[in-house]
Amino acid sequence: MLSAFANSFKIPELRQRILFTLGLIFICRIVTSVPTPGVDAAALQAAIRSIQNTAGGGFMGWIDLFSGGALSKCAVGALSIWPYISASIILQLMTAIVPALERLAREGDSGRQKLTQYTRYLALVICVVQSLFLALSLQNPGALGLGRGVVLVHNPGVPFILLTILAMTTGTMLIMWLGEQITERGIGNGISLIITINIVSRLPMAVYMMAGMFKRVDGVARFSIFHLIGVAILFFLVVAGTIALTQGQRKIPIHTAKRVVGRKVYGGQNTYMPLRVNYSGVMPIIFAGAMLAFPTALIGKIDLHFTKTLSSALQMGEPLYIVVYAILILFFSYFWVATQFNPLQIADDLKRNGGYVPGIRPGRPTAEFLDKTMTRITLIGAIGLTVIAVLPSILHKQFNIPFLVASFLGGTSLLIIVGVALDTMRQIESHLLMRHYDGFLKKGKLRSRR
After folding, report:
1. Residue 128, pLDDT score
2. For domain 15-201, which CATH number applies: 3.90.1180.10, 1.10.3370.10, 2.60.120.620, 3.40.50.620?
3. The CATH number of domain 224-409 is 3.40.50.11540
């Protein structure tokens, strides 16, 4: 594997792509470090630390993790790439519902270009709205759950709001453009790489906090060497399970009938259709987290005993939170598959191209078979996704492990890191194999051109 990495820099085109990607990632990290004008960065960091120490601080730490620490600095890239991702998710869901968008998606490159343009416009609108609410929250720290004596903006008013909207919108659109450039001229999916780098940038802090778990306070340490061994074993098991969940697939055999067109014979091949076990990826976790976070925050604002008790019970790590979170992940796993996986269209495409599943009649019986098979494997994937998703909350609440450390032992962050790493390695390996080098799973050497 190390030889394969070394061989990656022997190919001029691949070396140029890798260096180009690293350069743009460096620029993205600069954008997430430049502070927004008019905000007291020291007071904001202290306020966020105080929020993270409360019952609902896990969600704030989750947002700060995915922004690469930009939120705690109130940088111009504090919104990161999430407005673009939100716009992409909305357009994907609307494509399955709105016939006009569905026709655009089937038009090929021209239709996809129009959908991409619509996604950019929607991302701009979302970015303006989110930066507006963030500016208003900074001017009114009480909305963030802070005391009245906390001052984050020394010169509030309309000029500060407009400047914040302009700075954060520009930062987000710049990161979005850099991500598209990485996808086009670099290695890997640019948007996914930016999110992964933001998450990995918090790893040194997580290691520092983990080291602090084993320090002695008054001659007594909260965690011993046995806890360290247990955490290491748990980490490897969770990573192995995440890789298996990401790579797992059910192979449906497909036979293609022979067709004679002129003097050429087409078809007559045996292949397979891969159905991914985790078809929905990290989307159910994101949807479930949003569905729990915002209603819980609104309920907590109501000054009633019942709502206060319910809001406390729905905080991250509580038993009720874990149960509701798991149910929402299971629901959104099937919801995403229902909106994105179309067995009728797949069956029609197979029938049109002369393909069929052995033992299944073409047409509607094939669609019913694919739907039944996808329903079964989605249940396995949803259960595995739920276990990985709730693990950080359990470790944080029940074992007093810092949330930043627990977030690398499961959850959305680990799924994103593993998925993006595997996808990037596959792209690099394709370049190596095309230049007659072995991939990552074999001894890296120049293969014979014979």
Report:
1. 92
2. 1.10.3370.10
3. no
In DSSP notation, 124-177 reads HHHHHHHHHHHHHHHH-GGGGT--TT--SBSS-SHHHHHHHHHHHHHHHHHHHH
pLDDT tens readout for residues 80-109: 888 888 888 888 878 878 888 888 877 777
Query: Among 117, 86, 85, which Cα is nearest to 101's?
Result: 117
Residue 258 gets which letter from DSSP? -
* Tokens 């996604």 found at: 119
Per-residue CA distances from 34 to 9, 11, 78, 130, 135 (Å): 32, 35, 10, 19, 16
Give me the residues paired with residue 266 across strands: 259
Who contacts 385 (Cβ-Cβ below 8 Å, separation ≥6)? 245, 278, 280, 284, 285, 329, 333, 415
C-alpha dist (Å) from residue 411 to 62, 203, 238, 277, 282: 10, 15, 10, 17, 9
Distances (CA, A) of 27 to 76, 127, 269, 362: 13, 20, 48, 52
C-alpha distances (whole Å) from 71 to each of 39, 108, 406, 417 are: 12, 38, 19, 20
Which helix (DSSP H) or strand (DSSP E) does residue 250 occupy?
strand 249-256
Where exactly are the structural domains of the chain? 15-201, 224-409
pLDDT, residue 443, reads 46
